[in-house]
Amino acid sequence: MDLAAYLARRRELVDRALERYLPPRSEPIVEAMRYSLFAGGKRLRPILCLAGAEAVGGDPQTVMFAACALEMIHTYSLIHDDLPAMDDDDLRRGVPTNHKVYGEGMAVLAGDGLLTQAMVLLTDPAETAGHDPARVLEAAQVIMRAAGWEGMVGGQAADLEAENAAPDLARVQLIHAKKTGALITASLQAGGILGGGGREQVETLVRYGRRVGLAFQIADDMLDLSGDPRKLGKATGADQARGKMTYPAAVGVAAARETGRRLVEEAAELVRSLGPAAEPLAVLALYIMERTN
């Protein structure tokens, strides 16, 4: 399959839906929310959600509300991650970070607004109509739990606590599993649940997601060491400068690369058991360690 064309088509669908769910308004807070939401990006998490639904025989369009909620959550996390109190970044996706344009206070509120809007989407009767209410509740729980202290927020806290500490593989794996892996896995799991998947099918997506999530963060760690800032849309070398605990720092560059490759190969093999409809996920897994941004 042509992965580039597949991703482009899915990004376009997600972007159109996001425009519907957060249209332009005159309020400054909405402007700040839209600034980061539409600043570009791979739309990986919503695409994984759509692909998860498709892999279990569901209609991707019927889970678009959850896919867009995931992108809002991801974008909120980036806004807060860039703040001076966190990573203090000036650029994100090649443009000034939210707080550089709107100020720190408005950036905090823009992130809060996106997180809250995600919850609105996940519980909107107009969007969830036609779905089994029990599956809607389960998918919402999966997503919000992955976004909270047990997942992404907890991973960010662990990341802050680990700055300038001696690299430790177990600790790095925990940080990566929570900070990045949790929401990636939840994207697939929620898509599978809302797509009508059986328990074994959804569990396969979870196992795939855990491997892909860790590999994605390993690839990010590698790109920060040797990536092209023009393709990344931000400066490189930031992790080392801040004393971040990364996978290459814990095991070395060669071992990190090999671990990433092993994880994506395992993920592709796992998801192929779901049949031809899961082929996009298999191809996407293998792409993760080859990407340049």
Helix-residue proportion: over 70%
CATH architecture: Orthogonal Bundle
Task: Let me know the CATH homologous superfamily.
Answer: Farnesyl Diphosphate Synthase
Query: What Rg do the Cα atoms give?
Result: 18 Å
Span between termini: 21 Å
Average pLDDT, to the nearest integer? 94
Uncertain stretches of 5 or more adjacent residues? none
Backbone structural class: mainly alpha
| Main CATH class | Mainly Alpha
By CATH, the topology is Farnesyl Diphosphate Synthase
Task: Give me the count of strands.
Answer: 2
Secondary structure tally, helices: 16
What kind of sheet is the major sheet? 2 strands, antiparallel
The multimeric state of the shown protein is: single chain
Q: Strand-and-helix sequence, N→C?
A: HHHHEEHHHHHHHHHHHH
Number of domains: 1
Global geometry: globular
- Biggest sheet: strand arrangement: 1-2
Assess the beta-strand content as a share of residues: under 5%
Write a compact overview of the structure shown:
By secondary structure, the chain is mostly helical.
Describe the protein.
With 293 residues, the protein is mostly helical. The protein has a single domain (3-287), classed as Farnesyl Diphosphate Synthase. It has 16 helices and two strands. Strands 1-2 form a two-stranded antiparallel ribbon.
